[in-house]
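One record is given unchanged without comment:
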Amino acid sequence: MRYVRPVLMVITAVLLLCVLLACGEAAQEQQTHTHVWTEVTIPATCEREGYSASVCDICGMKRDETHTEPAGHSYELTEEKEATFLEDGCSLYTCSVCGKTEEVVIPSVTHDIPKVYLQGDLDTVTASNRIPFQMTYVSSEQDFSCIAALTVQGGSSAVGGYSKLNYNIRLFDDEELEVKHKVDLGWGKESKYCLKANFVDSTQARNIVTARLWTEMVQTRQDVPEQLDSAPGKGAVDGFPVIVVVNGEFYGLYTWNIPKDEWMFNIHGSDTGAVLFASNWNDPVKFKTPSAMNDSEWVLKYESEDLAGKTYPRLNELIRFLASASDEEFLAHIEEYVDIPSVIDYIILITICGAGDNTSKNALMVTYDGLKFYMSVYDLDATWSLHWTGKEFSDDEKNGPLLATDKSSKTIVTSASNQLFKRVLQHYSDLLAERFLELREGVLSNRSIYKAFEDFVSRIPQQVYEADWEAHPDVPSTKENTVSRIRTYARKRMALLDGVIAAYKAIKPKD
């Protein structure tokens, strides 16, 4: 072992000497040879930079290096397809140097509006006759194809003689209509929707915008059931404009909506729940006489198995309670039957937008336990001064359901012939006044209402409106029905109700 270290030292010294000798020879060679320079040039291309330098053929030494920027493409328009009303066009540009091509989309007038392409015969569709169609949905966010089964939706649409009808639309993967095609269009994956014609409202805005105001109102409420709070639209419809194309031809402007059924209220599968819809003008929907428990007044849209046969009887218990309860009994027990904040919000919304139909007809009631009902709104196109035919306007802000201050009882009263509303206002006028003032600072400020309508209508180019009216010349009041008119009515109506609340605040009993 004592010889190992000296041996390693000798080996290391020899290696070091070899390296030094080699480096010396190289340095000597470099110092003694004459460089032979060759000019090297790599020209710039459209996308790659150029390079030039002088390089020694012997040692590879470089000098005078330069870099030049890429030349860039020299594009020329070589092909163009004009946009049509429904389809985008495109311009094809080709580089005259390298041949690379680029395509530039020429947006159509309808570029930003989703399109629903249907293949089939709409004339054969009725409320009871479900007809399958080949359907393709195209938007900037997603495309899909499936089988769509259509039925006519809505009483007015079915019997009004309109040229453009509402349709319930169910999506399937198969022609036997057995496998549902679920798609998420902003409200979770579902297979049932509604194509809404909005025939009487040529702006297409009132129904969706007013429902969205309701959604925002519910968002500001306290103690909303979790199931309702997480429902799309908070139990009201929502939707967006679409263009319907039938057999390759423009058919009309519609909105693609959440349907009036259980998933609108976030009731799925084994969830407990029931949904009632007021379909007609009569005493049961005004909470005056018990329901006959059929579709002529309160329609049972959905009832979970565990509530089977219990929803109508519970509704009638509420109606009888309203008729017979003393004031003391009413205050002690009314919230066992119905959610008061939802009733207050319902009264406020239908009053500000002048929804005469909705003082009884078109109300929705949902229960999640079979005991307590929550009110919601539906069918809000005949609002903001528009008559239900779409042919007339009630520009007088005093037309439609009204609130007033009753000095003798020191309460707020309603012109609506609705027993639930009357009894609630008799005991909860303070709550309504405070809620109204709260909403006026946010959701129901003039500015918020104006913006909601303007934002919706701005999504639809005027050319699309005009194409719809040309395709369906019986659409009423296309010139008179404007957002400006809605704004004027809203301003006057809100000022009127501001006065009612101020008058109530001035006479209400002091705490």
Observations:
- The mean pLDDT is 91.
- The radius of gyration is 36 Å.
- The chain is about 30% helix and 25% strand.
- The CA atoms of residues 89 and 106 lie 5 Å apart.
